Amino acid sequence: MIYDVIVVGSGIAGLMSAIEAKKNGAKVAIVTKNNPLKSNSFMASGGINAVLNTNQADIFSHVQDTIKGSKGLSDTKTVEYMCENARRIIYKLKSYGVEFDSENDDTLMQRPFGGGSIKRTCFVGDKTGSAIISALLKEARHLGIEFLTNNFALRIITHQNQVSALAVLRKSDSNVVLYPTKAIILAGGGYAGIYKGHTTNSPDCTGDTIALALKAGLRVVDMEFVQFHPTGFEKSGYLVSEAARGEGGYLVNSDGERFVDELATRDVVAVEIYKQIKNKQRVFIDLRHLSSEQIEQRLPSLYKSAHIQAGIDIKTELLPIKPVAHYTMGGIESNMVDTSIVGLFVCGENSANLIHGANRLGGNSLLEGAVFGELAGVKASMMAKKTDLLPIDYNQVIPDIRMIDRLFEGESSKNFNALRTSLGNVMFDKVGIIRNYQSLYEALDYVKYLSTQAGQLFVIDKSKSNNVEVTAILELRNALIVAESVILSAIKREESRGSHQREDFKDSDKKFNKHISIRLIDGKLLKEEYKINSLFYNLLEKLRNLIINK
């Protein structure tokens, strides 16, 4: 099949971009490697930020809070665009059927979130993400957007630095398939899943689209900034939404002492909890002072999950928690949604559009995905209207075909699940909430060792029909590429800033008021420092306009 626009990913950014492109007349398909409901957006609980009035001072406060939270590494123009469009996006989501919690007069309710100077977080109980995704999926299907499920994106095919096709692994028969297209939108989410066993993310959140971009010659930026959510279940890592603290929950240690401002930014809260745990204290979230009605109406999912997973009644008992890898600020280099490949756009968590910098504010991730997903859809559909399909160089996909064939040819003594678990453990232990020179180099050596082991993996089941081992091996290889880029960036940033905390460089340093980028050259990761080159993007925009208007 041929499509005007192909979207990779079905979270809030991917669905918003697909809907917008379709409404603008494009033939659109969404590629997902699993069920479309299986996204981090669906799991996002607490809410989505927006100033709902037109008061410029309040909008400016949202801009300022976001920039302050980024620790000097956000782009003001991009942040302003997000905050100024937030109100309109909320009401667009409402028109799609998202039933935000409201007062009796239909005024949308808002709760406080960490790092926010005023209440500006809209919500649907503590299941905001699932409510939004359900509504967007319904809208996408109503519009006739096609879902190409169980397809693993392998390579972006280009002609003279412009998109011409997407190569995927069709999981049903393990064949490599090409989809000709005029534009591709990467919206595949983040990479916190590389911290397997220590994350709120699904294990398959391995940064596949980020690895895809690296293989296409793009740079990735700010990979060292991995946000650890302060509150996951102590045993399972299941997310305790920031809504729990937004509704007034306390954080207490084994002695019953509150030790941190619960609504400080996530980097601050996570570090303070980590210190308590290192000092042999357990940490709990205390909701016992909230009314039963408030817990049942505002935190229903947490109330049920605590019962089922931990056997705890949060109305009367403390809930043990720990920090877990949750969100990744790094991603594919972009100027809002544009990349250096014509016809390739990025949005959502896999994009480094310089909104979050070194630390994301709670409630800004769903907003960023919605705002820039919409923009990516508009730009991709404009590109599709004015451009023709380009020639496809099949030589570009031959390495992928050979690679998949090789997975079925050999015999393996390695266990990919054990390798993934080992990767998760070393990333948490050595590249976790607090890092240092020694731990980072130990992690780098171990990841390189795991990469050699992953290169010796073959499938045990030789059936090509829905072979889950093939996908697992590909995910592991992508996770290792992404993990190495995180470590290299963390080594290079010799300071502590936001979510990146170095024991050996405890203060922030003005000379690091810049971004660290990674690119793949001859199969090896190369690290280098850079500042966004606006002149380059201005020239790129002129090139796009020439193509669109020719």
Shape type: globular
Q: Which structural category fits the helices and strands?
A: alpha/beta
**Multimeric state:** single chain
Number of domains: 3
What percentage of the residues does DSSP assign to strands (E)? 15-25%
State the helical fraction: 25-40%
Count helical runs: 16
What does this structure look like?
- It is a single chain.
- This protein has helices spanning 12-23, 40-43, 56-69, 76-95, 128-143, 208-215, 243-246, 266-278, 292-298, 300-310, 364-386, 398-409, 416-430, 437-454, 468-492, 534-549; strands at residues 3-8, 28-31, 48-49, 110-111, 121-122, 146-148, 151-159, 162-170, 175-186, 220-221, 226-233, 250-253, 283-286, 319-328, 331-333, 344-346, 351-352, 434-435, 501-502, 515-521, 524-530.
- The chain is globular.
- The two termini are 26 Å apart.
- With 550 residues, it is of the alpha/beta class.
- It folds into 3 domains: 3-225 and 329-393, FAD/NAD(P)-binding domain (3-Layer(bba) Sandwich), CATH 3.50.50.60; 231-323, Flavocytochrome C3, Chain A, domain 1 (Alpha-Beta Complex), CATH 3.90.700.10; 395-511, Fumarate reductase/succinate dehydrogenase flavoprotein-like, C-terminal domain (Methane Monooxygenase Hydroxylase, Chain G, domain 1), CATH 1.20.58.100.
- Strands 1, 2, 6, 7, 8, 9 and 16 form a 7-stranded mixed β-sheet that branches. A 5-stranded mixed β-sheet has the order 17-15-10-20-21.
